[in-house]
Amino acid sequence: MTPGMEKLVVLAVFVLCYALALSRKVKIAYASLGAAAVLIVSGILPPADALFKAVKWDVLGIYWGFMMVSFVFMQSHMPDLIANRILARVKTEKYIIFCLCILTAFLSAFMENVGVVLMMAPVAISVSRKMESDLFNYLIPIAISSNVVTTLTMVADPPSIILAMETGMKPLDFYWFHGRLGLGTITLFGVAVAMAVILVQLRGMEKPVSVAREAIATTKGASILFVLGVAALAIGPEFGVRPGIVGFTVGVIALVMGRNYLKEMLVEFDWNSFFFIMGVFMVIYTLNASGLLKDFADLVVHVGIDNPAAMLAFLVWISVALSSFMDNVPYTILMIPVCQNLAAAFGIEAWSLLYGMLVGTGIGGNITPVGATANVFACGILEKQGGKVELVRYLKFSVPFSVAAVLGCHILIHIIWL
Q1: For residues 87 and 200, what is the distance between their CA atoms, to the nearest angstrom?
Q2: What one-character DSSP code corresponds to residue 368?
Q3: Is 180 helix (H, G, I), strand (E, B) or coil?
Q4: Which residues is 208 bridged to in the sheet?
Q5: Fewer CB atoms near the end CB (10 Å): N or C, the chain?
Q6: Which pLDDT tens digit goes with each residue over 239-286?
């Protein structure tokens, strides 16, 4: 197969995979694993690369392990206690969801957002049941809130770490850099705008809350395991411990703790989302390995835009569009030198273009249910609870929220850095 034909096949498989996943007419795992199988059988993706280079086992390990912890966490009745304390203090439903979104965003600025969503999901489920409300209105805002802070800190998301490593930025440089507001401070403004938008979106949820504090009997083991697992995720890499090993370990411990529910834990696990993500890793890896992403980068360089402000806008919003469907890590690695070369051609510092690209690719994953791993898992949990993920309904939450956040950051980057 010629390189040109190979690229056409990869692009067609990629488009078909995501079209099927977004339609949700078939199980999303079938869509991605089927696409990966086509790429392997056609010889485009070597099986060894598929298993050992494409699949991010660390992410899957975290997901499996913390979902097991999430199950025993639910059985401990701790989410019921947390839900009761929230309901006893907040008097309107929309403010309950808003508080959960704020807490999720804060934690995601320092932790793996998949882990945060898995931590918050049992609380959201418990609260929504007590309020007798649609779980969709809880889980989707929580999921998109976990992704809006991807550039708030240096450790919030892999692209931020990649930018810091490639440019020599330090953690505090994200807040004040070269005598100007840094990317993290700018992102904080975007997050504030997005949270204001989510509050507006929830304006119809005025159901009054009248709940008294209850004495709810809980067990502490699962909560302790959650805290220790999160701490291990944070400090483990400093000692050479892979995140996936941490996830797998806490998952095994959770299985032991919940041994009376062992069959239920394994059968009810969201294998659909798990295998979807596995297949997507293979598809995105092939998209990058085929040279299609490099072709896009070359296209950006030769797009003919001769105005820095227009180029900034182009990079911001094309990054939003592309990250709605693809992994932002290879995209970021590829686009950093592109931004630097474009800046040199314009005779400007590269920071404005780098920041704009990173904000777009970080928050853009929120747009679709399959654009970010946390969204995929949140939707999987929703479906496991009997809910339905409707694309149009999802977009009504995600698009205004994400566009507001990106636009707020875009304006500040233009004013401060261009």
Answers
A1: 20
A2: S
A3: strand
A4: 92
A5: N
A6: 888 878 988 999 999 999 988 888 888 887 878 878 888 898 898 889
67: phi then psi, degrees, rounded to nearest 5:
-70, -35
Place of tokens 């949990």: 381
What are the structure tokens assigned to 157, written together?
Answer: 């998301």
Total domains, the chain: 1
User: Which residues are within 8 A (CB) of 68 and not within 5 positions of it... i.e. 6 or more apart?
Assistant: 250, 251, 252, 254, 255, 258, 265, 269
Q: pLDDT tens-digit profile of 208-248?
A: 877 777 787 888 888 898 888 878 877 877 788 887 898 89
**Helix, coil or strand: residue 176:** strand
pTM here?
A: 0.74
Long-range contacts of 318-322, Cβ-Cβ distance < 8 Å, separation of 24 or more: 318/360, 319/356, 319/357, 319/358, 319/359, 319/360, 319/361, 319/364, 320/360, 320/361, 320/363, 320/364, 320/367, 320/402, 320/403, 320/406, 321/364, 322/296, 322/361, 322/364
CA distance 232 to 236: 5
How is residue 270 written in tokens? 């969201």
Residue 1 within a domain: no
Helices (H), 347-390: 351-363, 373-384
Q: Which residue has the tokens 């999303």?
A: 28
Domain membership of residue 308 (yes or no) is: yes
Q: Which element (helix H / strand E) includes 31? A: helix 28-41
Residue 242 lies in domain: 6-417
